[in-house]
Specification:
Blueprint lengths: L1 H9 L6 H18 L3 H5 L2 H9 L8 H30 L2 H33 L1 H21 L2
């Protein structure tokens, strides 16, 4: 996420903020859809063939795939939050900005509690992969909705 924020601040500051946020939402949805299938990627022929040519210390395994996907999720997170906070700062006056950020942080904490509790139960019922796929599909549906209301 830090690398994404640095790249956004230094190189992509002239791009439309709504487009960057939409790209982040899309990237998050696709990455969450791919996440449950990381172990299947490592068993594919091209990865096993690549591993035969790589030294043992550089061979690709499930950990490498998951770290890469977590990195992509961090970039997507930066694509969502940096432009959103920039818009919030641009559109609010100095007098109310602190109050708005206080309310925003309170609401984020409050509304994130229920999904955290819900996802644990759903993962027990349906499996982690199914829940991650469902969340990814929901995020992609949000992306499609954003495209429609543009």
């Amino acid at each position: 996420m830090v690398l994404g924020a640095v790249v956004l601040g230094n190189f992509l500051h002239a791009h439309p903020k709504r487009a960057m946020t939409s790209a982040g939402i899309f990237l998050s949805g696709v990455t969450l859809l791919i996440l449950p299938y990381g172990s299947q990627v490592t068993s594919r022929g091209f990865i096993t063939a690549l591993n035969t040519y790589l030294p043992a210390i550089l061979s690709i395994n499930i950990l490498h795939i998951m770290v890469f996907l977590a990195f992509v999720l961090g970039i997507a997170n930066a694509l969502i939050f940096v432009p959103s906070h920039t818009i919030l700062q641009e559109e609010t006056s100095d007098e109310v900005r602190g109050k708005i950020y206080g309310v925003l942080n309170t609401m984020v904490g409050l509304f994130s509690l229920f999904p955290i509790i819900l996802v644990g139960g759903l993962a027990d019922l349906f499996g982690v992969g199914t829940v991650l796929t469902g969340i990814g599909a929901g995020i992609l549906a949000l992306f499609m909705f954003r495209l429609l209301i543009k």
